[in-house]
Amino acid sequence: MNNIEIAASFDQLADLLEIDGANAFRVRAYRNAARTIEGIAESLAGVQIAQLTEIPGIGDDLAKKIVELMTTGQLTMLEELKAKVPAGVVQMLLLPGIGPKKVAQLHKELGITSLAQLKQAAELGGVASLKGFGKKTEQTILEGIASLDQQGVRFYLADVVPLVQQIAADLSKVPGVSQISPAGSVRRLKETIGDLDLLATSEDANLVMDALAAHPLVESVIARGPTKQRVRLKSLSNPMTPGAQGHKPEMDLRVVPEKSFGAALQYFTGSKEHNVVTRRLAKEKGLMLNEYGLNKGEEYYLGRTEEEIYAELGLVFVPPELRENREEFGWKTSADVPKLITEGEILGDLHMHTTESDGTASLEDMIAAARARGLKYIAITDHSKRVFMANGLNEERLLKQWEEIRRIREKYDDIKILCGVECDILENATMDLSDEVLAQADWIIGVIHFGLKQAPDLITKRLLTAIENPYVDCIGHMTGRLIGKRPGAQFDVETVFAAAKEHGVMLEINAHPARLDLSDVHAAKARAMGIPIVINTDSHSTYGFEMLQWGIAQARRAGLSAENVANAWEFEKFEKSLRRNQKK
DNA sequence: GCCGTTTTCGGCCCGACTGTTTTCAGTCG
């Protein structure tokens, strides 16, 4: 059982306990532990109880439960609760506006054990008669069930950022609006986004809310109070997020007075886990932090900017991307804060395709686009032969392509062009191209496209084969975490990363929004181990370089700075750092 | 269930909005 599965078990346990009426803080302990375990890159398999309790939020009890899960693959307490609370009851938690208390009530008083039964009861009007329920709640339930297949969509960051930016730009022109900013997970640059947050300061909240309600991207208003409005946007016209076609993102707009902008921005940016700590720290200092400011007693004290709040709490300013209650509260001075990589620092792109395999632009066009983008070096990395559907190159075609690259690159003195290949690591743990050919390249990315479902020890073995091959410079497509139920290959991260470190092999963050291959947690681990990362666009067209921003977002969330990112280095330094050149 | 230069017990972040209510519980973020 891996860490993600442990976290899922604890989340499941928390759901069940909640419906069972357990102490809310006990439930929170399980949820906190789940978040913590998710964020740990090292496998907890085989870790002793004494070490587990060193993890914040894990005490004796949870440590024992982790060991039980690791050794037996299940948890007695979880099985007992599952027997007590039917799965259909837990599903009711997915209904908006229906929480554990109401679910428990429906289960106990009406004996409902499935969504189907609930639908039937609501249609017959049996739900409205319960105490605390009414006609409106019944309607909410029916609407919730009707749209349940629309629930749970998390959009790629790349799908929603343009929407938020457009709406923010338009609302900034509304009279009385002085400041406006995206908040929430969009501002933290999370790879997937549940719903959107927008914060504004204005003399007249009603004007801003009216403008949002009338915005062309907005379909309907879900709720509206004096300071807060929730709207449903129109569905995305052409989403990259799989399964998002027809789904409608929701957006919260919050309007606060100007003196509260920093406090509100801090609060609505989150994460929730980060905020719980900032509020606790405020309390320890005899202050109270809410979205209106840092208060002394009942009195507003400050809150115009985030900076003054962090300073007053005795904290260094934490970049939004790193507000996850991981390490940020341990930073003492600004020197402890990673100087996060920016798009402008990227000098090279080491993964792109041409019409020779499945790209849509020629070699010359890709070079022109890279130069226009200001890149100082690039690698042409078409597919190897095994990827036949992408017209992958065999040895003969590849050598011919490199010959052409060597001829063409003489023309340019403002950009270095490397002869590369995205070489598949086959199911039988051999490379798709012969060593003789690989030896002639300037840059090789080893990737797995086939047999992703092999057992973890086999995937590990394949990755090690590539890492131990003297000509492979980088491993790409590594810990793919595609949205939905399509996990990437499973392998022993500890072993593979250690081997990459030992052999001087780099790891790739693929900037394509649909396959941010190195998760932020794993990229952070690579950083801690001193393994260089490259952030590549995997461009298949001359427009592909625009995707770099999403790779940068991922890298920032992993706390990477230019020194961790090999393609942010000057070409000479980058070239010298390749292990194929270190031996010379 | 976790945690401790206030503590091994008694805390655990805080507020908006809704619907069902006559003062608030539940849900959500």
Compose a concise summary of this entry.
This protein has 584 residues and is of the alpha/beta class. It contains 24 helices and 17 strands. It is 40% helix and 14% strand.
Spatially, the strands of the biggest sheet line up as 11-12-13-14-15-16-17
- Total domains, how many? 5
**Count of helical segments?**
24
- Average predicted confidence as pLDDT: 88
Indicate the overall shape: globular
CATH C-level category of the largest domain: Alpha Beta
Largest β sheet strand count, sense and barrel closure? 7 strands, parallel
User: Portion of residues in helices?
Assistant: 40-55%
User: Using DSSP, what is the number of strands?
Assistant: 17
Helix/strand-derived category reads: alpha/beta
CATH architectural designation of the largest domain: Alpha-Beta Barrel
Hey, roughly how much beta strand do the residues contain?
A: 5-15%
Provide the CATH topology of the largest domain.
Answer: TIM Barrel
The stretches of 5 or more residues where confidence is low (pLDDT under 50) are 481-487
Q: Give the CATH H-level superfamily of the largest domain.
A: Metal-dependent hydrolases
- Rg estimate, integer Å: 26 Å
Distance between the termini: 44 Å
